[in-house]
From TrEMBL:
Organism: Haloterrigena turkmenica (strain ATCC 51198 / DSM 5511 / JCM 9101 / NCIMB 13204 / VKM B-1734 / 4k) (Halococcus turkmenicus)
Keyword Chaperone: yes
Keyword set, alphabetical order: ATP-binding, Chaperone, Nucleotide-binding
Designated name of the protein: Chaperonin Cpn60/TCP-1
Keyword ATP-binding: yes
Family note: Belongs to the TCP-1 chaperonin family.
Highest classification ranks of the organism: Archaea, Methanobacteriati, Methanobacteriota, Stenosarchaea group, Halobacteria
InterPro entries: Chaperone_TCP-1, Chaperonin_TCP-1_CS, Cpn60/GroEL/TCP-1, GroEL-like_apical_dom_sf, GROEL-like_equatorial_sf, TCP-1-like_intermed_sf, TCP-1_chaperonin, thermosome_alpha
GO molecular function: ATP binding; ATP hydrolysis activity; ATP-dependent protein folding chaperone; unfolded protein binding
Coiled-coil intervals, chain numbering: none
Length: 519
């Protein structure tokens, strides 16, 4: 059958085509990007997000803001996916990626209004992104990425984010120390660094724990609060009277039968306790329950026991101490024990925590974050998490580039230079890509109170004369200079991922000219 294609849809379906569909999708993507734009940079503003239950989140972390927003429009959700992808791959630069994606859509909308076909825009954007990746490689510092450079990377990541009473500089030292702790010959075991938050003290009390911290308390009040040079066992065993899987009733006709039953139960319980005590373990972690009588006996023997720990905590303890999980008490041997320099149970207000520190096989480290309020520790956790990610990324790749908008200025300059050799309307798309990247330095300038246009002109002029120029914020002063001289540094992979993910999302949205939605 020839002629027009036939669409068979339900009566409640809605269809938007052509320019209307493109305009709707682009508008949605731009709106989401605009919502996080003012959070960019050291002078970025925070957002307060209140959900339907009244729970409040205060942050300037792009990924958190976008994920907390109740976004339904499918095109807008693609911008959220850009931030998610950026967060998952490199841990930072989420706001930059979202803002670039939004501005690429804005430039695409202008081109569509000039009758440039979406396919031409997509081709031009992809060609421009390849040029951008080359420009990023050209901006990579020749300096060795040592601890000092890593501290600058961490500090650059955290500047402008909520760090409580701590400076980004002091936190950067903790972050670098944590990542160095999990550095391996073939890379960085980023997952072996955890962040544990605890309300109830100034953020200045934040410290690095060479081990793990879990939310658990001793199984008995009489147990020791601290064990040094500990041999520990990790069990998946219930230390108590075994119960059947079916309901059963027993008839007792005499006191002697009752005493016999009680004696049998006591013997079983004491057998568990004696087996654990005689094994030589100083500390026991079990994922199951511990009978009060077993706990009491082990307390008298000076054994520290934690019961009902989660599976993930058990895995972390095994990783941190070199222990082997045991599923049956009869199988417990000294070779299954893990080693720790110190295991302690500490109380923080209404919370009880277990610290497992050190050990010959320790591979895990915890940043123990303190703060006076829940909002402070939550934002600190996000800031430190991003810093850990970018330091791990910089250490793994060994490549860093200037921050403060300098890399985006350099990319845009190279794209415009290369665009002169591209024929046809595709050149318009390539130049539009360069214009879209200007949103980063322009936003940085606006967030510092400078005129965006004047700042952009000055940045381009400084870049042309020196080859590297960024917008440096120091206290109340804003200057244009080489970011490397001020320690404003980003991992090169953060910039690459931002360009790639933003380009992918923008071109996908720009190509959509038909939206069919079911009610």
């Amino acid at each position: 059958m020839g002629g027009q294609p036939m669409f068979i849809m339900s009566e409640d379906s809605q269809r938007t085509q052509g320019r209307d569909a493109q305009s709707s999708n682009i508008m949605a993507g731009k709106a989401v990007a605009e919502s996080v734009r003012t959070t960019l940079g050291p002078r970025g503003m925070d957002k307060m997000l209140v959900d339907s239950s009244g729970e409040v989140v205060i942050t300037n972390d792009g990924a958190t803001i976008l994920n907390e927003m109740d976004i339904e429009h499918p095109a807008a959700q693609m911008i959220v996916e850009v931030a998610d992808s950026q967060e998952e791959e490199v841990g930072d630069g989420t706001t930059t990626a979202a803002v670039i994606a939004g501005n690429l859509l804005g430039e695409a909308e202008d081109l569509i209004e000039q009758d440039v076909h979406a396919t031409t825009i997509v081709e031009g954007y992809h060609e421009a992104s390849e040029i951008a990746l080359e420009a990023i490689s050209e901006q990579v510092s020749e300096e060795v990425v040592d601890d000092e450079v890593l501290k600058q990377v961490a500090e650059s990541s955290m500047t402008g984010k909520g760090t409580g009473g701590l400076t980004a500089e002091s936190l950067a030292e903790t972050v670098v120390e944590a990542i160095r702790h999990v550095e391996l010959e073939d890379g960085v075991a980023r997952d072996n660094v955890t962040v544990h938050t605890q309300i109830g003290a100034s953020s200045n009390a934040t410290e690095l724990v060479p081990g793990i911290v879990i939310d658990e308390e001793p199984a008995h009040d009489g147990m020791p609060g601290e064990v040094e040079d500990a041999s520990l066992a990790v069990l998946d065993v219930e230390l108590g009277v075994r119960t059947g899987e079916i309901d059963a009733e027993y008839s007792i006709d005499s006191i002697d039968q009752l005493n016999t039953a009680i004696d049998a139960e006591e013997s079983e319980v004491r057998g568990y306790a004696e087996t654990v005590a005689e094994s030589g373990a100083d500390v026991v972690f079990t994922t199951e329950d511990v009978d009060d009588r077993v706990a009491s006996y082990l307390a008298s023997e000076g054994v520290l026991v934690f019961e009902g720990i989660g599976d993930s905590d058990a895995k972390d303890i095994v990783s941190a101490t070199g222990a082997t999980r045991v599923g049956a008490l009869d199988d417990l041997e000294e070779t299954d024990f893990g080693q720790a320099d110190r295991i302690s149970a500490e109380n923080y207000g209404d919370d009880d925590l277990a610290f497992v520190e050190g050990g010959a096989a320790a591979e895990t480290v915890t940043v123990f974050v303190r703060g006076g309020t829940e909002h402070v520790v939550d934002e600190l956790e996000r800031a430190i998490g991003d810093a850990l990610d970018v330091v791990a990324t910089a250490l793994a790749s060994g490549e860093v580039v200037p921050g403060a908008g300098a890399t985006e200025i350099a990319i845009a300059d190279k794209i415009r230079e290369e665009a002169a050799g591209i024929e046809g309307r595709k050149q318009l798309a390539v130049n539009a890509f360069a214009d879209a990247l200007d949103i980063v330095p322009r936003t940085l300038a606006a967030n510092t109170g400078r005129d965006p246009i004047d700042a952009l002109v000055d940045l381009r002029s400084a870049h042309d004369s020196t080859g590297r120029a960024g917008l440096i914020t120091s206290g109340e002063e804003v200057t244009i200079d080489d970011p490397f001289d001020y320690g404003v540094i980003d991992p090169a992979d953060v910039k690459r991922e931002a360009i790639e993910s933003a380009t992918e999302a923008a071109t996908m949205i720009a190509r959509i000219d038909d939206v069919i939605a079911a009610e």
